[in-house]
Amino acid sequence: MAGEDHARQRSIMLPGFGSKECKAFLPIFKDCADSLSMKWMDTIESGNSQGVVINIRDWLLRGAFDAIGRGMASPTYYIFAKDLFNFIPVTTFSVCLQQVQLFMQAASKHIPAGIIQWLTDNGPGARLARARDVTNTVTNFAKELVQEKAVALLEGKGNTDAFTLLIKANMDANAKKRLSDEELLAQMRTLLVAGYETTANALSWILLELARNPKVQSRLRDEIRKTEATIRARGEQQLIMSDLEAMPYLSAVIKEGLRFHPPSPLSLRMAGHDDVLPLSKPLLTESGDMINEILVPKGTEIVISICAYNRDRDLWGEDAHEFNPDRWLDGTTDDKKLPGIGMYSNLLTFYSGTQGCIGWRFAVIEMQALLSTLVGKFEFAMTDKAKRIIRQPMIVMAPMIEGELDHGVQMPLVVSLASKDGEI
Questions:
Q1: CB under 8 Å, gap of 24 or more: what pairs does 34-38 form?
Q2: What pLDDT shows up at residue 15?
Q3: Quick one: which residues bind heme (predicted)?
Q4: What phi, psi does 401 have (nearest 5°)?
Q5: pLDDT at position 366, please?
């Protein structure tokens, strides 16, 4: 979607994802992280005290979906998050959506859009059926939310969750800018389903890198422990936003994880008009010509490789293909050296411009809360299978084990209790 319709929808959604609004979700994210930690502690205590192998991605999907359900919908909707998670087999969900997406992309070149939509809604096959089930479940839930929150707002009882703010903004907008019921449901459905898997995948890859790099993991845990001590020294128990903002290495690890392992490997765009793109450096073509720009006619389909940009040595240094959080602390990523695109720290991970991810602040704060809690409480180590993990492009860049692709998405790590210096 682009143009006036996109601008209209984005203007309605923005109030729910401002800096102040997203920071207010921190207590919810911390509670979700604590709930996940308790599950892992129970698993460890009932198994081997030296550590147990946990498919962390499945559990991070639970935690991220809990955060989405409670932050987007309502603090009391954690039950929904768990129910819908159980409804969706997580090892096949990405594969299911990938197959549907590939079908629609391929068919769109040869079949009218109306027929494609009919096949998507009525066609045979287990994957199409599951995609419809997921869509119907989330749509029905979104309808209930719209009715419930609209009534609450009219009675002056609205909450501050993202969906309430979205519905309020839509109710306050003039008729020309207001979203239709169908548009409103589509946006809520997208936020519920799309938001949790990208965050869970990003956290999974970060924990894998911490398991691969014990010194980085230990350094991060030391910073977390110092912050915990600071919180106790002021006579408090709860982590607040200023605590997260005072942890530079936590921020560096998250930024490096988002750079090195962007959840979405690429982005598709179409030129809305004829344009000429300047190149950052001259390019030698197959015909032997040296060019400095590329003509892009209107209607040209463009594939933007987020992975390629995020690992470009000209931008990130000669070690761009290595996981190195220190690049965010030693001046390598100084804004003056980078092109100044992206929603967050010059990364393309959340896209850029008016098409950028509207929920990027929500995702970053959620990751800060979950990662600081999990690394503070647990130690992560490699398994033999984890050494064979490869990146498998789907809707997200999914972790799979070489030789076991038929087993679906996996991220098995050894998880053990970290030494205790006090907890928050």
A1: 34/373, 35/63, 35/66, 35/78, 36/60, 36/62, 36/63, 36/66, 36/370, 36/373, 36/374, 37/373, 37/374, 37/377, 37/378
A2: 75
A3: 357
A4: -100, 125
A5: 96
Known binder of ligand: residue 307?
Answer: no
At how many degrees (to 10) do helices 181-212 and 214-233 cross?
Answer: 110
pLDDT in tens, 177-192: 788 878 888 887 777 7
Dihedral over Cα of 48, 51, 52, 58: its sign:
positive
Contact 96, 130 (CB under 8 A): yes
CA dihedral angle for residue 103, residue 107, residue 111, residue 117, rounded to 10 degrees: 30
Pairing between β-strand 266-270 and β-strand 275-284 as defined by DSSP bridges: unpaired
In single-letter form, the type of residue at position 59 comes to: W
Length of the chain in terms of residues written:
424
Beta bridge partners of 303: 268
Which tokens go with 415? Answer: 């998880």
* The amino acid at 318: E
Question: DSSP string of 236-252?
Answer: --S--HHHHHT-HHHHH
pTM given for the model = 0.86
Residue corresponding to tokens 């090195």? 260
* Cβ neighbours of 278 (radius 10 Å): 7
Weakly modelled stretches of the chain, pLDDT under 70: 1-3, 5-6, 49, 74-111, 113, 116-117, 119-120, 125, 127-128, 130-131, 134, 175, 335-336, 421-424
**Where is 179: in which H helix or E strand?**
none
What whole-number distance in Å separates Cα of residue 260 and Cα of residue 312? 11
Contact 244, 376 (CB under 8 A): no
Q: Where would I find the H helices in 69-213? A: 78-87, 90-107, 113-122, 126-154, 162-172, 181-212
Neighbours of 315 (CB within 10 A): 17
Edge-to-edge strand list for the sheet holding 52-55: 52-55, 412-417, 378-381
Q: What span, in angstroms and rounded, lies between the C-alpha atoms of 198 and 178?
A: 29
Crossing angle of the two packed helices 90-107 and 56-68, in degrees rounded to 10: 80
**Helix-then-strand count for the chain, H and E:** 16, 9
Closest alpha carbon to 81 in 137, 153, 127, 11: 137
Distance in angstroms between the alpha carbons of the first and the last residue of the chain = 44
Q: How much is the pLDDT for 79? A: 41
